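$ ./design --mode recover --in tokens.txt
reading tokens...
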């Protein structure tokens, strides 16, 4: 490890520097197959808090700090048979109180030594941050592409493809997107409590003033949905086929807006950056929908880094030859949503927990 550039972890607006200790790899805990943290040699943690502004409450017996953490993460802090919690308490000389199973509430860290409390807090937050990146996403930042023009174009596209490319390997009606769910995915979110949803909602509202107004300047985004691309190098074995956006300056402004939004959500530790720039695409066919019709377009294979399950690809060579420049229609992008992955609203689009209106 370059000692002049140690790895850092951002949690909220705070930055923690992790210092490697001999016998560990960067000091980061790893998950085993049961999602438990492997043991580390005593003293394997050496946390240094880069931000000194955490508030401690003074009590009759010392100090305490409250951590607002969703209950699904409690098991990672407790560990198998309570080993992780006991170890944290021993090494930091603190007492850690975690709500009982099935209950929500703050985690309380208390002790006599401020440094020990800060250390326990840092370790817990890093564990939660690592665990968050391994959780299936619950929500996603989306832009609906559900105008009448595009939906009509998509339905004609589906009809024409099934008729003119009939017999192509792996092609059937189940792999087409639901036209009421056509969308752009900006990024995925893991929101496991009302408080986290509220935090993400507040951040989205901040984007309206901080990003939308300066970038769009009250100008509308009108883009043509036209052309097809696929996610791999072989048109004869495709898993995801998507429609492209055309629009010159409007497309540039949209790209700038979504990239800046990802920056904002990533800095707040609500989103994990996947690529340097958001890939703007509208999934129209996806082989995952043979078994999962939710239709959320996520280009990565698995969030936990493990290989994706087997899926049957389809031969898109004839589709690309006949429909590669297909015109789905022109769309006015007028909103950005925090959408629920598993729920559908009255319109047939993903249930929105919050949205902002664009010009």
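writing sequence...
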């Amino acid at each position: 490890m370059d000692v002049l550039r140690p790895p850092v972890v951002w949690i909220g607006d705070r930055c923690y520097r992790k210092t490697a200790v001999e016998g560990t790899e960067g000091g980061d805990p790893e998950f085993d197959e049961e999602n438990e943290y492997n043991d580390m040699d005593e003293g394997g943690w050496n946390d240094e808090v880069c931000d000194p502004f955490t508030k401690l409450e003074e009590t009759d017996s010392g100090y305490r700090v409250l951590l607002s953490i969703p209950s699904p993460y409690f098991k990672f802090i407790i560990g198998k048979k309570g080993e992780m919690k006991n170890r944290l308490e021993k090494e930091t000389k603190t007492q850690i109180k975690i709500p009982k199973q099935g209950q929500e509430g703050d985690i309380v860290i208390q002790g006599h030594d401020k440094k020990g409390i800060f250390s326990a807090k840092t370790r817990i937050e890093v564990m939660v941050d690592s665990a968050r990146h391994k959780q299936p996403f619950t929500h996603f930042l989306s832009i609906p592409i559900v105008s009448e023009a595009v939906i009509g174009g998509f339905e004609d596209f589906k009809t024409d493809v099934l008729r003119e490319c009939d017999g192509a390997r792996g092609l059937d009606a189940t792999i087409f997107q639901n036209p009421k769910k056509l969308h752009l995915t900006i990024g995925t979110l893991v929101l496991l409590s009302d408080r986290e949803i509220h935090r993400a909602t507040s951040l989205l509202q901040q984007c309206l003033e901080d990003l939308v107004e300066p970038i769009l300047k009250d100008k509308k985004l009108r883009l043509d949905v036209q052309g097809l691309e696929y996610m791999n190098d072989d048109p004869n074995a495709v898993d995801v086929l998507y429609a492209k956006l055309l629009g010159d300056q409007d497309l540039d402004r949209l790209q700038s807006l979504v990239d800046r939004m990802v920056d904002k959500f990533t800095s707040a530790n609500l989103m994990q950056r996947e690529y340097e720039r958001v890939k703007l695409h509208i999934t129209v066919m996806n082989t995952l929908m043979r078994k999962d019709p939710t239709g959320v377009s996520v280009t990565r294979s698995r969030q936990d880094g493990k290989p994706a399950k087997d899926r049957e690809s389809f031969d898109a060579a004839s589709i690309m030859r006949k429909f590669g420049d297909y015109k789905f229609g022109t769309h006015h992008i007028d909103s950005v949503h925090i959408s629920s992955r598993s729920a559908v609203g009255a319109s047939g689009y993903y249930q929105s927990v919050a949205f902002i209106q664009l010009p």
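exit 0
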